[in-house]
Design brief:
This protein has 19 helices and 23 strands. It has 622 residues and is of the alpha+beta class. The protein folds into 3 domains: 12-318, 3-Layer(aba) Sandwich (Beta-lactamase), CATH 3.40.710.10; 329-471, STAS domain (Transcription Regulator spoIIAA, 2-Layer Sandwich); 484-617, Jelly Rolls, CATH 2.60.120. A 5-stranded antiparallel sheet has the order 3-2-9-8-7, sandwiched between helices. The protein has a 5-stranded mixed sheet with strand order 11-12-13-14-15. Strands 16-23-18-21 form a 4-stranded antiparallel sheet. A hairpin with a 5-residue loop joins strand 19 and strand 20 (543-547). Helix 2 packs across helix 9 (243-256), helix 3 (132-146) packs across helix 7 and helix 18 (580-589) crosses helix 19 (591-620). The structure holds glutamic acid. Glutamic acid is lined by residues 82-83, 115-116, 132, 176, 183, 211, 276-277, 302.
Length: 622
């Protein structure tokens, strides 16, 4: 098939011009071009009104789970949904009356017979909800709850799936009411076995109306994408149905969705689908896409000829068979390290740094990435179990994890509970208050001892460092004040030289929360912190460093004309500010001071570079 085929203006797609169409749009265009010439099959005629369908109509729509709509041809032409409704009404029945009551009324076995077969199972239930008997039973269950309001309930649900208000084709409805004697027979048979209760005609009318709901190929694609997206309509963002009901619905679509072609279909195409005699097909590939096609000519099984071809071509071309999946769980860990050479951005006092250097393996950091399922978390737990001894502080980073399955969260919770009992403190990062991943994990880790949660990795590493320092007896309250001689930038200067610089500086005081330096301003002074704590932050809020007494900031002014970051007072702060021009003038008279300061500055920068390089090295190793 030629994916580059040029299209006549009449079938220009609504979404994109020709110049830069994504490959999937081009592929759908080429399907449209190739299959529109296939005139085989026949329009359904057993409901007289359906005979009026235009056999030339052909529309394709594909909706991704991020809500992008691809469409081509007559994707906006309305037609009646017919049996495609059965999948969605089954979902509604499950939601309304629960699995048990549905199972008591309707089976889930493929019947191997035509959609309108009157045969029931040995225990007198419809074989499954995708044949007429099962669908009528579903309408009956909803009717038991809602009575005369049953159809409105169904229409509202179908509309939610489609993301717009749907309506009924009254002519098709009336036509089926007149000719639907076979369905009437099925309904009375079900009434006889008490599968359908109450007013049979009202139940039947609910069913006939549901089949006469007007949809477009685009609607079907959105409906399918909602199933593919665990019940959330990707266009409207509305949670239409629970993930559990979605799985039940896709199951019966897989085994019985394509009439008596269901086995062949799942073998060849491998995507849960449902078709209807109006010419529509929905196909939902979980977590990937929803497809809707419309073309009224049907084959001998009752499936749309062209729609079938589109599905087959799409599946074959992009290898979409649902059972042909591959995933390497090992990609879920992008980094696994201890804190050797890696530190939080809090600058430590020398004796604290020494403890951290000696006990770097006390903190293990595992950075996770991607959607995590049962198999991925199992891999993580084995990786933790295989490499004893356990670090007493285990940091699991979820910042790059957009999703975790319920099974994955459960396995994680169990593993953290075991580690907690062994004395390991687990620290989880990437925890936003409202994210679904955080909620899923929080629910499964409520009982875990010693668990800590942080938003930022850096804050978590800082906390873990504090624990290491504390456990090894090095925890001293942050130094209150410092003498200028302790500044690393002024190392090797004589007492007189230091006194001289102090004399050239002005004492400054700031309140907690005050900004001391603003990024972008001209850099014309250096600061020596004597009391309190400051943080150096980028304007985005990312912290570059936290500093305490005895540390300098703004020292880059010696090299750069503009401030590159903000500096904020985290507590009440006292410091000395040395104007750059005064310093430069003084250095001109005392070049040996300039030499020492520049050497000290180079040493400070070299240290930062070494830390930065260690991080680059660490991440490129994965
Ligand atoms: N309303 C149609 C019937 O019950 C639906 C059949 C179908 O689409 O399979 O006969």
């Amino acid at each position: 098939m030629d994916a580059q085929v040029a299209l006549p203006a009449s079938i220009k797609t609504r979404n994109t011009g020709y110049a830069n169409q994504p490959p999937l749009q081009r592929f759908l265009n080429s399907c449209y071009q190739e299959f529109r010439g296939d005139d085989s099959g026949a329009v359904a005629d057993y409901i007289p009104e359906l005979k009026k369908a235009n056999p030339a109509h052909f529309g394709i729509a594909l909706v991704t789970i991020d809500g992008h709509v691809y469409e081509i041809g007559n994707s906006a032409v309305p037609f009646t949904i017919q049996s495609v409704s059965k999948a969605f009404v089954f979902a509604l029945a499950l939601e309304m009356v629960g699995e048990e009551r549905v199972a008591a009324a309707i089976g889930v076995e493929p019947s191997g017979e035509a959609f309108n077969s009157i045969r029931l199972t040995n225990d007198n239930r419809p074989f499954n909800p995708m044949v007429n008997a099962g669908a009528i039973a579903c309408s009956g269950l909803i009717h038991q709850v809602d009575g005369a309001g049953a159809f409105d309930r169904i229409l509202a649900k179908l509309s939610q799936f489609a993301g717009r208000e749907l309506a009924v084709d009254d002519a098709v409805h009336a036509s089926e009411v007149i000719t639907g004697n076979r369905n009437r027979a099925i309904a009375w048979l079900l009434r006889n076995y008490s599968v359908v209760l109450g007013d049979v005609d009202a139940v039947l009318d609910t069913y006939f109306r549901q089949c006469a709901v007007l949809v477009t190929a685009r609607d079907l694609a959105v409906m399918a994408a909602t199933l593919a997206n665990r019940g959330i309509n990707p266009v409207t963002g509305v949670q239409v149905i629970t993930p559990h009901v979605v799985a039940s619905t896709l199951s019966v679509m897989t085994s019985s969705g394509m009439y008596d072609y269901a086995g062949e279909w799942i073998y060849r195409v491998g995507i849960p689908a449902k078709s209807g005699v109006g010419g529509g097909i929905v196909a939902a590939l979980p977590s990937q896409l929803g497809l809707g096609t419309f073309s009224p000519c049907l084959d001998s099984h009752g499936n749309s000829v062209r729609g079938l071809k589109v599905c087959e071509a799409l599946s074959a071309r992009f290898d979409l068979h649902m059972l042909n999946r591959s995933a390497d769980v090992r990609t879920c860990i992008i980094a696994d390290y201890d804190i050797f050479g890696i530190s939080s951005r809090r600058s430590r006092q020398p004796h604290e740094q020494q403890i951290l250097d000696e006990h770097h393996s006390d903190v293990r950091v595992i950075e996770l990435v991607g959607a995590l399922n049962f198999a991925a978390i199992d891999y993580v737990t084995r990786r933790l179990a295989n490499e004893p001894p356990n670090a007493p502080l285990l940091l699991l980073d979820f910042r790059r994890v957009p999703d975790i399955t319920a099974a994955g969260a459960r396995l994680l919770g169990e593993n953290l509970a075991i580690l907690g009992n062994l004395g390991v403190t687990a620290i989880l990062t990437g925890f936003e208050a409202t994210s679904p991943v955080s909620e899923a994990i929080r629910a499964r880790t409520a009982e875990v001892q010693r668990l800590r949660r942080f938003v930022l990795l850096d804050d978590a590493i800082e906390w873990a460092e504090d624990q290491v320092i504390y456990r090894h007896g090095g925890f001293t309250p942050v130094k209150e004040t410092s003498h200028l001689g302790e500044q690393a930038l002024l190392a090797e200067l004589s007492a007189d030289e230091i006194a001289a610089l102090a004399g050239l500086s002005a004492a400054r005081a700031y309140e907690s929360g005050q900004r001391i330096i603003r990024a972008g301003e001209s850099a014309n002074s250096l600061f020596f912190l004597q009391r309190g704590l400051v943080s150096v932050k980028l304007p985005s809020g990312v912290r570059l460093a936290s500093l305490g007494p005895g540390m300098e900031f703004g020292e880059m002014a010696i090299l750069e004309p503009l401030r590159s970051a903000d500096v904020w007072a985290d507590t009440a702060v006292e410091c000395l500010e040395l104007p750059l021009d005064t310093f430069t003038d003084y250095c001109r008279l005392h070049p040996q001071i300039a030499l020492k300061v520049m050497r000290n500055l180079s040493a400070l920068l070299a240290k930062r570079l070494i830390v930065a390089n260690a991080k680059v090295d660490l991440l490129s190793a994965y």
